[in-house]
Design a protein that fits this description.
Blueprint lengths: L14 E2 L1 H31 L17 H35 L12 E2 H34 L7 H30 L1
Antiparallel strand pairs: 1-2
Helix pairs in contact: 1-2, 1-3, 2-3, 3-4
Amino acid sequence: MDTRSEEFPDEPGNSLSKRTTNIHVSALDGLINVNSLFTLAVFVGLTITTPGAATLVDDSACIAGEDIARNLLTFQVVSFSSFLFSSLVAQGLKQAIVLINSKTLRDVFKAPINKHFLRFGMLLSAFGSVFGCIFLMLALMDVIQIKLGTLSCGSIWSLRAVVPLFMLVPTALIIYIHIVLYAFFH
């Protein structure tokens, strides 16, 4: 009988048992998948961002200037970098769990791992995702200003697009941060 495939009780100290790392691998998979979608979206945004992009603004005083276009590109690059950072950290943690794993193929998602290392890595990955979302939100604000008119001009269309963006995304991020911190400390 192969005793390595049986679940073993939680070890004292800093180690997580085989029962708990399966949940962590699933969480890391979800984080990697979401970050991959965001990274792809930002990358596509970077590739199609062109100077002099079409605008729906009639008033020449409300057309976004080069500074907003530069901000857009900067925010897209920082967002892309943040999501990529988060995904790489999560992927590294996942690989660490698999490599530390036992020799049996059945236990590929269950391995003892240092809980402080895992928590710190998951916290880094989560904050990378948060920063990516913040900069993606700022990039979207600049896209809105380029397409619908600057906020300083008082474009009602820009305000209608930006207000929900700046209400929903920060609310979701606050909830996400609280959940991550709760999981980190408990």
